[in-house]
Structures are given as structure tokens and as C-alpha cells.
Amino acid sequence: MTGVVSVENLSVVYDDFRALDTASVEIGAGESFGLVGESGSGKSTLLRAIAGLAPASEGAIHVLGRELRGSRREKAFYRAVQMVFQDPYGSLHPRQTIDRQLMEPLAIHGIGDGERRILKALDEVGLGSGFRFRYPHQLSGGQRQRVAIARALILEPSILLLDEPTSALDASVQAEVLNLLEQVRRDRKLTFLMVSHDLGVVTHMCDRLAVMQAGRVVERLSSADLVAGRIGEDYTRNLMVASKGFRRKTA
Ligand SMILES: Nc1ncnc2c1ncn2[C@@H]1O[C@H](COP(=O)(O)OP(=O)(O)OP(=O)(O)O)[C@@H](O)[C@H]1O
Ligand SMILES: [Mg+2]
Hints:
By secondary structure, this protein is α/β, with parallel strands linked by helices.
């Protein structure tokens, strides 16, 4: 166990259904790691289990050298690890201003200097102070996702769990948000665990990836290997053929 995120033989069982089946991934500090696989293969479940949102029935999760047990997560966990979801509308409160939603994590963690931090966070994600007192419905989808990223960054985490962070966005906006994520990762030396069904996105953003099928990790490979077609499993090859984003990039 040497990674900053280490998941060993993790299973999540709902009734009799194994949503995650002895899955293991190991992510090094500063690494950007991708999870791909068909719909229902367990990608979100793996992220949710790390965040304590899905019940692990066997296996172990270590984050930053500490074992996480059960579903309880210490406050310190949320300072170190933040999650960004696909649907920024769902993850922002519709009746609270951006200011209030950025202030909330600071208040929970007893962090002062809120105004300066909020302005800095908005600036970092490319939204000026003019957005501060708006409501989510007054923003575009891309702007909402920038707010969700600002909220994830405001506690200065070292690890981001990203579940399809751009798949609800138009292609051009998607590219902008991916560039933003790549830039903050470099600037802040963050570690990413990122789910995407788009292999073009994953190979662009991630150094290595795990391929999931029916709750299991069926293959681990580098983005370079995937792009060059050095693939071990037919399942992975089929995913590549099915991924429109990937075809577009390699055509
Ligand atoms: N709370 C739950 N109760 C019962 N089954 C669940 C629950 N959450 C997920 N599952 C099941 O576990 C399996 C894996 O779901 P998961 O959301 O991890 O897939 P995914 O790989 O993220 O798929 P997608 O690409 O469509 O987002 C699915 O069959 C899903 O129906
Ligand atoms: Mg999912």
C-alpha cells in the first residue's frame, strides 16, 4: 500500500447484487487516474465507496495512509478529498447564492477569511466576482460546473474524485472545463480519480486507467498503451470502438 488512494479487493453488495466485486486500484501522489467501463460496471460505486456513500462489504480503502472503515468519514477526510459529480444542477442548492454555497464548507470547517477565499476560488475557476451573488439558475451549465469545482477546491483538498464531470456539457464547454481541471491539477499538484465514458477524455486527462466490467477491474493500462492499441482484453477494445470521443480523436 503505497498510493495516496489505495483500494484493495473492495466489494459493494446491494441485496444480492455485487455492484463492486473485489476491485483494486492504486493511485500515486499527483497522479491522474481514470476509470472506464460500460454503464453499470461500478465506476460511480467505486468513487462513492471511497467517499463513504456506498457500503463496502469487504476489502480495504486507504487514503493518505489512513484506513477508512465503514461509511463514517472524519472531517479531515473532506478537507483532503472532494468529489465533483456529473450534474452540477443537482449538486448545487437551487435557492442559495453561489456565495452562500461557497461559504458553507468554510463555515463547517471553521475556516475564516471567507470573502477573500471565495473571490480567489471564483477567480481560479474563471468566474469573476460578478457571479458571487447569483443563483444556480442564473448560470450556464458550464458556469455551474465551474462553481461546483470552486466549491470542491475551496477547502484546498489534495484529491479530487471526479464522476463524469463534463459529460453533461456541450463539446466546446467540456473542453474548457477539462482544461480548467488540468490547470488546477498542475497548479495545486492534485491527485485525480476520474470517471468518464469517453475514452478520448480519459486518455487526454489521465496517465493510467482501470477498465471495469460488472463490478470488476478487468484491465489496467496506461493511456499511451490504450492510444497505441496495446490492449489485453477484447472488452477494452470494444469500449474503444464504442467511444465516439475516442474515434473522433483518432480519426
Ligand atoms: N444504491 C443502489 N442500490 C442498488 N443497486 C445499485 C445502487 N447503486 C448502484 N447500483 C447498481 O450497481 C451497478 C453499478 O452502478 P454504478 O452507478 O456504479 O455504474 P457506473 O459504472 O457508474 O454506470 P454509468 O456509466 O451508467 O454511470 C448498477 O447495476 C446499479 O444499478
Ligand atoms: Mg456512474
